[in-house]
Every structure is written in C-alpha cells, then in structure tokens.
Design brief:
Layout: H1 2-17, H2 23-45, H3 52-83, H4 96-99, H5 101-115, H6 121-135, H7 139-164, H8 192-207, H9 227-232, H10 237-255, H11 259-268, H12 270-280, H13 285-330, H14 338-363
Helix pairs in contact: 1-2, 1-7, 2-3, 2-6, 2-7, 3-5, 3-6, 3-8, 5-7, 5-8, 6-7, 7-10
Length: 364
C-alpha cells in the first residue's frame, strides 16, 4: 500500500510537470513526484533493507533539488536585473547558457542526476528502488516507476532547453519580435554568493550516490547496497533506458523544433488538446478545491455563523436581558419600609394558605 501510494504520487505529479511553463512550478511538481519515489522506496524495501532505499533517495534528492531551485533563483534574479520584470515563464527565456554558463552547467548536472543518468547520484538512489520493486515481485509497480523515470527525464530536459537553450528570447517575449533580451538589458551570471553554492551542490549531485553503505547504519545486519550489485543487475537498466529515451525525446522535440509548431500540433489534435488542458489545469484539482471551499466550506460557515448569531447569541443575550429586566422591575419592591414588608409577608402567607385549602379540597 505504501509503495503504491508513492508510485501513484510519483507518476501523477510527473504528468502535471510535463506541460508547466512556470520555471519554479516545474520544480514544485517534480518535488512531489520525487517524494512519491521515496515512499515507493520505503514500500518496496521492507524490513530487510530497513527502509534504506527511501532514505537514500531522500539524501541524494536533497542535493540536486536544492541545486535546481537555487539555479532557478539565479535565473530569475538575472532576468529581473536585465528586464526589471519578474520573469518565470520559460517560454520567455532561452539562450541563457550564453550569459550564465555556471548556472547552466550546474543546472544540467542536476537535470541529469534527477533523471537517473548513469553514475550521477540520482541514478543510484532511483534505480535501487526500481530494481527492488522487480526483485520483490511488484511488476506493475516496477513499470509505473520506470515510466515515471522517463517522464522525469523528459520534463527536466524540456525545462533546461526552454530556459538555457537556443537564442535569447527564442520563443518571443518582453522585447517583442526581437526577443526577450534585446533593448531591455543583458542577463549576467549571478554573484559568487550564488555560484559557489551551485558548484558545491553540483559536485554533491554527482558523488552523493557513492555513499551506499551509510544507509545500512540503522541495521548493521541488513544487506549492503553495493554499487557493483546495482550495476550488475539487469533490472536496473530498463529505468536507465527509459530515462535516456525521455532525454532524447525532449531534445528532439524542443531543441530541434520551434515551440510554436509544437503548440500548433497539440492544438490541432483533439486528444492531445484535451490531454494538454487536463494536465495544464492539474487534473482540475485546484478547481475542485475552489468549488469545495466556495460552496461547501463557505456554505457551512455561513450556516454556522447564522446559528451562532441568532441561536447562541440569542440565548445568551436573551438570558442577560431577562435577568436585567427582572432585576429592574423587582428592585421597586425594595422600599425600605417595614409596613410594606409586613404587608408582603402576611399577604404571601394568606395567598399560600388559600392555595393549600384549594388543593386539599381538590384532592378530596
């Protein structure tokens, strides 16, 4: 159950990331997808590996995802200085590798690592999970995980090409027909306070995968995850193959074809157009949240507010008003005159006697 929930989360978020145009939103859905991979790792590993593969992917993911987000911040910072606008739409970018070589190279390293490219950190942690899914007989789960690996490679290289590949403003942008950067400033590499952490994270995104035996520390008797084991196991390589296929597909589609032609092709096909709309709207989950909040949560809150105002407040305020009214009327009885009190005492006694007589006759 844990493995399937993780695998569903991984492929669900990966499909949404395929069509996103916001630079950081791609990374946000990528993070959700990789969290799904981690839970799949917890599920397929079991007590034998003491949940090591899930923790291992969490460890490697920390480096290349931090690198991706910091690199995205480096791009957004540079474009803000160049255009004096907040630019996060990848369709308005392009050609940034020329202006920001350190950011571009480190981002490419992180892209290859998260894609599971051989000998990068993500390759060891992701393909360990994929191989264990097959080894333990979860064949359908194994297929879902390696398909997700291919989707991850595709949308990550797509993001890289849209942002860093081609010419500046290749897909049109803030600068009109001449592109994003002409006449509005030139992007430049980020300062050392950004590029040095990028370089350090890029190194970790390569070498973090070689620290296998650390993840057997919780249970020293569990089998070690050796690099030789992973590289010699054929079950590792379908994931590698589909990751390479995803990279090749993204390169052929976005590096060799104009984005306008791709959009025209998608819009010209009914099935692709509907699928693209569904993915772009994130399976309408945000719309469902909006409808639920607007009509259910707010509706219930209005009912609760009316109940609180007219029933609860009415009872509380009514009780207070009753006490106030009775107190205001009864205080006139307190005159301070003995004659009045004696009259009230004997009058009450006479009234009580009369009531007793009546009740006795009624009972008889």
């Amino acid at each position: 159950m844990v493995a399937w929930i993780g695998a569903f989360t991984a492929i669900f978020a990966a499909t949404i990331a395929l069509v996103q145009t916001d630079f950081k939103r791609v990374l946000a859905f990528s993070t959700i997808s990789q969290l799904g991979y981690m839970f799949a790792g917890l599920g397929v590993a079991g007590p034998v590996y003491n949940n090591g593969p899930g923790m291992f992917h969490l460890f490697t993911h920390a480096f290349f995802k931090a690198l991706l987000f910091l690199g995205a911040g480096s791009v957004i910072l540079s474009l803000h200085h160049a255009t004096h606008k907040e630019v996060q739409d990848m369709r308005l970018m392009g050609g940034l590798a020329k202006y920001m070589p350190i950011t571009a190279i480190t981002w490419l390293i992180a892209t290859l690592s998260i894609s599971g490219f051989p000998f990068f950190a993500g390759f060891f942690s992701k393909d360990t999970i994929i191989a264990l899914a097959y080894a333990h007989g979860y064949y359908a789960l194994w297929v879902v995980l390696w398909v997700t690996a291919g989707l991850t490679a595709f949308y990550m290289l797509r993001a890289y090409i849209l942002a860093f590949g081609g010419k500046g403003g290749r897909f049109g942008g803030l600068g009109g027909g001449e592109g994003l950067y002409r006449g509005v400033g030139v992007p430049h590499e980020s300062p050392l306070t950004v590029t040095i952490p990028l370089i350090l994270l890029a190194i970790a995104s390569v070498i973090a995968g070689y620290w296998f035996n650390f993840f057997t520390y919780l249970n020293p008797s569990s089998p070690a995850l050796s690099i030789v084991e992973i590289l010699s196991d054929w079950k590792t390589y379908p994931g590698v193959g589909v990751a390479l296929l995803g990279l090749a597909w993204a390169y052929a589609l976005y590096a060799r074809t104009d984005l306008a032609r791709i959009n025209a092709f998608v819009q010209g096909n009914v099935v692709l157009r509907v699928l693209h709309r569904v993915l772009l709207r994130k399976y309408y989950i945000d719309d469902l949240y909006d409808l639920f909040v607007r009509y259910v949560v707010l509706g219930i809150s209005h009912i609760c507010q009316a109940f609180d105002t007219y029933i609860i407040d009415g009872l509380v305020n009514g009780a207070a008003s009753l006490v106030t009214t009775l107190g205001r009327d009864l205080r006139h009885v307190e005159t301070g005159r003995v004659q009045t009190y004696m009259f009230g005492f004997f009058g009450g006694l006479a009234l009580l006697t009369l009531v007793v007589i009546v009740l006795v006759n009624v009972v008889k």
